[in-house]
Structures are given as C-alpha cells and as structure tokens.
Amino acid sequence: MMSVYLIGLTGGIASGKSTVATRLAEHGAVHIDADQLAREAVEPGTDALQNIAETFGDHLIQPDGSLDRPALGTVVFGNPELLRKLNAIVHPAVQDLTRYYVKQAEEHDPNAIVIYDVPLLVEAKLPHTFNLIVVVHSTDETRVERLIRHRGLSRAEAQKRVGSQASEAERLAIADIVIDSDGTLAETLGQTDALWSRLVTLSHASNT
C-alpha cells in the first residue's frame, strides 16, 4: 500500500533546521511546521483556546479574541505543574492537526515526502511513526554565536536558550541521518540536496 514518506526533522535553536526544511520544501517536500501548528491550535474559536481561558484565566484572551502569548508565558514560566497543564491542552490539539495535514498530503500525493519540522522532537516523545529522523546538528558554541549575531542576544541569554533544550547528544541518539550545519551555508545546503536525493530513492523503494 502506498503511503507518504514521513520524516521527523529536528535540531536545537539556531542549528539551521529552518534552512534545511526550506531547502527540502523547495525540492518538493511537504513541509509541516510544528511551531505553526501550535499557533493554529489556539486560534480564536478553538477548543484549546477556550480550555486555556478556563484553566488559566480570561485575562489571557485579548480584545480581538486571540491568545496573549507573552502573558501566558509569564504565567507558566518556571512552574512545571502549570506548564504540564498547558501542554496537556495544546499537545493533543497539535497532534490532531498534524494527522490532518499528513492525511491531506497523502490524499494529494500518496508518494509525497512529508517533512515534520519539530524543534522539541526529543522532549515531546511524539506518537507518530517516522520513516526516518533527521537531526540538524551544530555545536552549542556555534549556536550561541548565531543567536548573538543574528538575534542580538547577550551571551548569557544565548547560553540560557541553548541550555534549556535537549542536549545535542540526546538529539543525535535518535538520529537516522545527521546534517552537520557547523560549516558554511553552502555546505549545509549541499548536504540537504544529497539528503533529498536519498529520500526520493528511499520513498520509492518503500512504495514498491
């Protein structure tokens, strides 16, 4: 039976994951962005947004009906129990959206290569069965330098952001394929182009 070839793509903050995802989409992959789904899951009118208001307070809903994300962040930051409650609301909604978009991709093209772009793949322990997991890897120091250079963060803040996520060792432990993004942009894109060729071959083989 033909089915989409589902790739889990992950990488730490400032690893170059978005660059890889964009390149794969240019080649023809269907790109599903978990961060975008997390925003879509709590749009005005959704059950998840109503649950957030009931759990954490109506003051988190702005006059236009949208979620006040910074205010919600302030409520749950540093409080594991409240964060657990928030995740229990948002994660199932994101999973439902993920299944919907994967099904859409399959209906459009049963042989589609779908890239599920999820920063917290290690942390989230997703229920999806991936054909392959691709990790975009660069050292902590490289990522800190990128955050300072491209996002204007202080070194201390950049180190805090990098340190708050899963370690590179944890990510590499689940990788089937690793893209090393420590080098130049051209080198990263070259590895991504080679990955696409490999994915095309593997997906064809899985559907024959």
Automatic annotation (TrEMBL):
InterPro entries: Depp_CoAkinase (IPR001977), P-loop_NTPase (IPR027417). It is found in: Cytoplasm. The keyword Kinase applies. Gene3D superfamilies: P-loop containing nucleotide triphosphate hydrolases. It comes from the Bacteria. ATP binds at A14, S15, G16, K17, S18, T19. GO terms for cellular component: cytoplasm. Pfam families: CoaE. Keywords: ATP-binding, Coenzyme A biosynthesis, Cytoplasm, Kinase, Nucleotide-binding, Transferase. This is Dephospho-CoA kinase.
